[in-house]
Design brief:
Elements: H1 22-32, H2 44-66, H3 71-89, H4 103-129, H5 136-157, H6 160-174, H7 191-199, H8 208-229, H9 232-244, H10 250-266, H11 269-286, H12 291-304, H13 315-323, H14 327-356, H15 369-376, H16 381-391, H17 396-411, H18 421-455, H19 457-469, H20 473-487, H21 493-503, H22 515-528, H23 537-546, H24 550-560, H25 562-573, H26 597-619, H27 628-642, H28 646-675
């Protein structure tokens, strides 16, 4: 049976609906994701040496998980060797040779290693003899390391983050001069103060951000590399196809499910859009979704993976390190907001398919759920095992390392997933390569953290937001949202969160907002900058795959993610949505009791109903097409339901039920009239 296609979308069934070639995918990746521009060395011996160094780097992280070094030393090795690898793997510019390593990259390679070698040799003198007070050699190697961090980060993430760090680095040199505004004036700082802060302490380059990178994030990226080698991506795609491919608008639901799971594990929104989108976007177009909408679905699903427990793209571990709140508490707090986000995306996809009568894929051409689980289902066990370890309060680093070993064992159960020794080495190397962008971002953000810590600039930023908020929580939340989105614009999720947590989240403390809720708030909006025009790299990548208009795709992504923009405001006003009860606790509390069970049930039912109703209003369809007036009324009812208060829930519930009943009745009448 043929699939009905909306007239306005028939152009999407042209040849451009075919899956993009590997060359096209790489071209799109390189346009929107600097991390994908890598060398392929023609010198095989040098290539083997580089692979050996990457594998050794991965093994080092597994070793220090169980045999930790002093924090400054293991963080400096993580940064120094990591940037040495960056100068070998990433060319200086897009037009630079990708077959050989330039002479200046060899200089930068040894400069990077010199910074860590100096700290390893001089560590005892720095700590015990000089007490962290820098001498000339300390300053020299600090400057060398900072230059390597800035240049390496530029290569792997682009100009935005290094330029941002340079502005902060310049600030303490000029912050005492008369032309500075009164709020920004500080005491004079010399070169030793600034570079000593960045290099000799764990409040600069080697801050908690790098601490989380070396102890948690690297291991979870490595875990993701092992899952990938065992065919986890194929499992997610096949599972999504088997579960939702035949449903109304099936391919779009497949995209949401598979991209959400992959986004949670790898945390790389743009790469995820291109990787999974190369498969899902053409499928969406074939059943009749417009190319702009298809690209937007993939972008919003990929970005949302970073708020989806249990892994949350590794950002949850940074949050745990920053706030002192246990990872398990953060993962539980993120659960309902993440479910509401994805429910909003899937519901819009469903209602659009209903409005345009878009069918799914023929069931006989889809994989059977039983066969998928038989072939690869056992590879879901490592994720279950990881959740179990974390729930049992096993240290996060240990849990990740144990799960990597468990993944290798589980892969042996089936031929389709079995990992050879070569696969294990390949996963170690791949994990190292994938970790470099996060390491670089955390290191360069360390410059910002160091300057903020040295000059108290964060206090100035916080007080400015509070002053502009004029004592109004809602206005302060809006200003914090804007600051978080501007600071997160064009940045990967982890540095976006670290920057917003440092400068925007403290503004909410004056309103007695729990630290967990405040950090979740800025975390959401820092991430969603990736799908918010004008700078929405994930949406641009989706448009590159779909052939759609980048800005229109960005606005479609924004619409699909609307629940994600509303829910953070709701959990600030009622933290029950985060499964915490902060009543009577300090804003800096690290542990929270669960709210009453009945409160949780009410919040879940009303918020889920509200998000579905809001999606229906946005698409103008429930069981039939809605009038503009009905859509507006339904949207109001939906927002009242999402807002977690008894009176608003009652009013919203009545409105939503009335509109739904009217729509169902009108649709039945229309169907009956058409059949006469």
């Amino acid at each position: 049976m043929s699939t009905p296609i909306a007239p306005s979308d028939k152009e999407d069934l042209s040849a451009d609906s075919a899956n993009p070639s590997a060359e096209k995918q790489q071209e799109i990746l390189e346009k929107f994701d600097k991390e994908s521009i890598t060398r392929k060395l023609s010198n095989k011996k040098l290539g083997w040496l580089l692979s050996a160094l990457a594998i050794a780097y991965a093994l080092f992280h597994l070793y220090i998980t169980f045999n930790p070094m002093p924090a400054l030393l293991q963080r400096s090795v993580h940064v120094g060797v990591g940037f040495a690898l960056i100068f070998m793997i990433y060319p200086a510019a897009k037009g630079s040779s990708r077959q050989r390593v330039a002479w200046y990259d060899w200089i930068l390679f040894f400069m990077s290693l010199s910074g860590v070698a100096y700290l390893l040799i001089e560590y005892q003198n720095i700590v015990t003899v000089r007490g962290g007070i820098p001498n000339q050699w300390d300053i020299l190697f600090s400057i060398i390391t900072v230059l390597c961090v800035l240049e390496g980060t530029r290569r792997i993430t682009g100009f935005i983050l290094p330029l941002f760090a340079l502005v902060f680095l310049a600030y303490p040199f000029f912050s005492h001069l008369g032309f500075m505004p009164d709020r920004l004036l500080t005491r004079p700082y010399d070169v030793g103060d600034i570079f000593g802060q960045l290099y000799l302490k764990t409040e600069g380059l080697y801050s908690t951000a790098i601490g989380a990178s070396v102890t948690f994030i690297f291991l979870f990226i490595l875990f993701g590399a092992f899952l990938s080698r065992s065919g986890m991506g194929q499992l997610f795609n096949d599972l999504a196809l088997a579960l939702a491919g035949h449903k109304q608008g099936g391919p779009a639901k497949v995209a949401v499910i598979s991209s959400g799971f992959m986004g949670s594990i790898n945390g790389a929104a743009v790469a995820n859009v291109v990787g999974t989108g190369a498969f899902t976007i053409p499928l969406m177009k074939r059943v009749g979704y417009h190319k702009n909408f298809a690209g937007a679905v993939e972008a919003s699903a990929s970005v949302g993976g970073q708020v989806l427990p249990p892994i949350m793209g590794a950002s949850a571990f940074i949050m745990a390190e920053t706030t002192g709140v246990k990872y398990s508490t953060i993962a539980l707090a993120a659960l309902l907001p993440a479910v509401l986000y994805y429910l909003g995306v899937i519901a819009q996809v469903h209602f659009r398919a209903g409005r345009r009568d878009l069918k799914g894929i023929a069931k006989d051409s889809l994989p059977e759920l039983k066969e998928v689980l038989k072939a690869r289902g056992h590879m879901l066990l490592p994720i279950v095992f990881l959740v179990y370890l974390l729930a049992e309060s096993v240290p996060v680093g240990f849990a990740a390392a144990y799960t990597i070993g468990f993944t290798i064992v589980m892969s042996m159960l089936r031929k389709e997933t079995r990992m050879s020794f070569q696969d294990v080495l390949g996963a170690l190397e791949s994990g190292t390569r994938q970790s470099l962008a996060v390491m670089a971002a955390c290191a360069v953000v360390g410059i910002i953290i160091g300057v903020v810590s040295l000059t108290s600039f964060g206090t100035v930023m916080t007080s400015s937001i509070v002053t502009l908020g004029a004592g109004s929580l809602l206005l302060t939340l809006i200003l914090t949202m804007i600051a978080s989105m501007v600071l997160g614009m064009g940045l990967p999720s982890i540095p976006a969160y670290i920057i917003t947590a440092t400068m925007a989240a403290p503004a909410l403390a004056g309103f007695d907002i729990p630290i967990l809720a405040a950090h979740m708030f800025v975390f959401y909006f820092g991430i969603f900058a990736n799908i918010t025009p004008p700078v929405c790299l994930a949406a641009f990548a989706g448009a590159g795959i779909s052939g759609g208009d980048p800005m229109k795709t960005g606005f479609q992504s924004l619409k699909l993610a609307l629940a994600g923009f509303i829910v953070p405001f709701m959990f600030i006003y009622n933290p029950t949505m985060l499964m915490i009860d902060p009543t009577g606790l300090a804003v800096t509390a690290k542990e929270f009791p669960l709210p009453p069970v009945m409160d949780i049930i009410v919040v879940v039912i009303t918020s889920v109903t509200g998000v579905i109703a809001l999606s229906s209003a946005l698409e103008g369809f429930f069981k039939g097409v809605m009038s503009p007036i009905a859509r507006v009324i339904l949207a109001v009812g939906a927002l009242l339901l999402i807002y977690p208060e008894l009176m608003t829930d009652l009013a919203g519930g009545i409105i939503v039920l009335a509109i739904a009943a009217w729509n169902i009745k009108s649709n039945k009448t229309a169907v009956a009239s058409a059949s006469i």
